[in-house]
From TrEMBL:
InterPro entries: Na/Ala_symport (IPR001463)
Location in or out of the cell: Cell membrane
Membrane-topology annotation of the record: Multi-pass membrane protein
Key words, A-Z: Cell membrane, Membrane, Signal, Symport, Transmembrane, Transmembrane helix, Transport
Name of the featured protein: Amino acid carrier protein
UniProt-recorded Gene Ontology molecular function terms: amino acid:sodium symporter activity
Keyword Cell membrane: yes
Pfam families, alphabetized: Na_Ala_symp
Family classification: Belongs to the alanine or glycine:cation symporter (AGCS) (TC 2.A.25) family.
Source organism (scientific name): Sinomicrobium pectinilyticum
Signal peptide residue numbers: 1-19
Residues annotated as transmembrane: 151-169, 204-226, 232-249, 289-309, 329-346, 358-378, 490-513, 534-552
A Gene Ontology term for the protein's cellular component: plasma membrane
Length: 607
């Protein structure tokens, strides 16, 4: 009898335990060949309702049994917990089917690995500040999945800002005292038609500016203001001023160490000064390693950020305003490739002739409309600047405190003007000049135009109109378009055209950057140049035809990573540039540099 009782008790206990166990059944869905639209639905059996679902995907709420917008081929975890505290964790992966999904899923882990280096936060790692964001009551802000929201000071931003600050101090604020002389050079006051090179000072400037002014000035600024608040504008402007000094150093070196072949082709930029400049200091092997790393990264960035992203976003903006284009990305890409090809097949001279017309035109149009919007809201002038300065130094907790707003501004400023990345030095190497430092002066105007003028005007439009408030669900370009559209109803059409022209000019500039990196790695023959150009045009079509996802993120990181080998070289050679600057200023003040010198008060005498 006792044995029967124990057997019955064991059976009842086993049944109770089994009924309390959580069993998960899943439905995996991949509805299309488009990337990042995978879906996982969980059904729970057993346990006690209600259940919570802790997904590894931050955007999925705790109460949702369905996660959507997932990347195909990437594993996700979910922990389900019932009302009694019982929980179970499982991992799921929606298989990638199309080629783009497979490529995207394969690239994402690489992007995450590179991002863990470039966006590593050294300050948070050593406990200088708490990266968790809090509301005004001190409670931590959470993602929908329950993870805390954090801010970070990315290593790559620190790298670029410290570099800009170092060069500003090392060159004794050349970004301020050299500004007037830079304007005079860009306006052609000191052009030397007989000097070695292929393009004028202004053409080199226009080519380099066209490689930076683009969607980042329109969409990127909107996101920075929406996330960091108006105070981010102040730090963005400061980043632009510091970047002017970085551009001065790298472009001076780009001209100094360039090679000019008998056929007139110019080979310069970081690849040249990293090899030759460090060789002169007994660091030849180290210089070659840095140059090769830079060239590989530059080619990757040219095909992605400087190419596929441009055609992709140009098509996206135009089809948004002209529905007839919808679904015709391939043919749009073909047309854009033909237009780009018609320019780049002619080399840097052809590129410069186009950019010197497109860049001033589009910049003038954009600045004009921005000023119209600002003047229409001129009564908000005082309050807008109060928001900017108060937000810069005393931001609310919801914006991440002063660290959060500072990083939003610095991040947009540094990423927009590419100062320290080294790309502009390739364009400026082709300038007609006998004096390398003179091209450094011209180059320092780029961050001023890109960040201090264009980015700042975009920010002011967003702040004056108040469009950055309540911006949930809007992308950066949509936000800027809405801000302008609140005053000028037909402006979205102008913006779509502007994005296309900016994308076009960026693509032709980056084709030259990537081509020079390719000739450094594979030989300085015209055959290498031709093969690169054909591949570049194929990627223009590809970019307009597919969704980019992790491929674009990978390319963006390659562009930012170019700053690592480049700034190392700039640090080592900064003393040389400083001495060259002293000699240039001495000769300029003594009227010894140019045939027809004009009185110039461009730079104070060195102390």
């Amino acid at each position: 009898m006792r044995n029967k009782f124990l057997s019955l008790l064991l059976t009842l206990t086993s049944f109770t335990v089994f009924s309390q166990e959580l069993t998960l059944k899943e439905t995996l869905d991949n509805p299309s060949k488009v990337i990042n639209d995978a879906r996982i639905e969980i059904r729970v059996e057993g346990g006690q309702e209600p259940y919570t679902y802790k997904w590894s995907n931050p955007s999925t709420p705790l109460k949702s049994n369905t996660a959507s917008g997932l990347t195909e081929g990437i594993p996700y975890t979910v922990t389900v917990t019932d009302a009694n505290g019982l929980s179970v964790t499982k991992k799921y992966e929606v298989p990638a089917q199309s080629i783009t999904e497979v490529f995207n899923g394969t690239t994402q882990p690489i992007v995450d690995a590179i991002g863990s280096v470039l966006f590593w936060d050294p300050f948070a790692a050593i406990g200088i500040y708490d990266p968790v964001m809090h509301d005004d009551s001190g409670a931590p802000l959470l993602h929908p999945n329950g993870d805390p929201r954090t801010i970070s000071v990315p290593f790559i931003v620190i790298w670029l800002i410290i570099g800009g600050l170092f060069f500003t101090l090392r060159m004794k604020f050349i970004n301020i005292r050299g500004f007037k002389h830079a304007i005079q050079l860009a306006r052609g006051h000191y052009d030397e038609s007989e000097a070695p090179g292929q393009v004028t000072h202004f053409q080199a400037l226009a080519t380099a500016v066209s490689g930076t002014v683009g969607l980042g000035n329109i969409a990127g600024v909107a996101i920075a203001i929406a996330v960091g608040g108006p105070g981010a504008t102040f730090w963005m402007i400061l980043a632009g001023f510091l970047g002017m000094s970085s551009k001065f150093v790298e472009c001076s070196l780009g001209v100094k160490y360039r090679e000019i072949h008998a056929d007139g082709r110019v080979f310069g930029g970081p690849m040249s000064y990293l090899v030759k400049g460090l060789k002169a200091r007994g660091k030849e092997k180290f210089g070659k390693v840095l140059a090769v790393v830079f060239a590989v990264l530059c080619i990757g960035a040219s095909f992605g950020s400087g190419n596929m992203f441009q055609s992709n976003q140009a098509f996206d903006q135009l089809q948004g305003q002209f529905p007839v284009l919808e679904g015709n990305g391939f043919w749009f890409g073909v047309i854009m490739a033909i237009l780009v090809g018609a320019v780049i097949l002619g080399g840097i001279k052809s590129i410069a002739k186009v950019t010197e017309k497109i860049v001033p035109f589009m910049a003038s149009v954009y600045v004009f409309f921005a000023l119209v919007v600002i003047f229409m809201h001129i009564s908000h002038l005082g309050s807008a600047f109060t928001e900017i300065f108060d937000g810069a130094f005393d931001p609310g907790a919801l914006k991440g405190g002063i660290i959060g707003v500072l990083i939003q501004g610095f991040r947009r400023g540094t990423f927009s003007n590419e100062a320290g990345v080294g790309s502009a030095a390739i364009a400026h190497s082709a300038a007609k000049t006998k004096h390398p430092v003179s091209e450094g002066f011209v180059a320092l105007l780029e961050p001023f135009i890109d960040t201090v003028v264009v980015c700042t005007l975009t920010a002011l439009v967003l702040i004056f109109t108040g469009a950055y408030q309540g911006a949930e669900g809007l992308g950066g370009a949509q936000l800027t378009s809405a801000a302008f559209g609140s005053v000028i109803s037909w402006f979205p059409y102008v913006l779509a055209l502007a994005v296309f022209l900016f994308a076009f000019s960026t693509a032709i500039s980056w084709s030259y950057y990537g081509m020079r990196a390719a000739t450094f790695l594979f030989g300085k023959s015209k055959r290498v140049e031709f093969i690169y150009k054909i591949l570049f045009l194929m990627f223009v079509v590809l970019g307009a035809s597919i969704s980019l996802g992790a491929v674009l993120e990978f390319s963006d990181m390659m562009l930012l990573a170019m700053a690592l080998p480049n700034i190392i070289g700039l640090y080592i050679m900064s003393g040389e540039v400083r001495e060259d600057l002293k000699e240039y200023v001495r000769k300029l003040n003594a009227n010894e540099l140019f045939r027809k010198p004009k009185p110039v008060k461009a730079a104070n005498k060195e102390g």
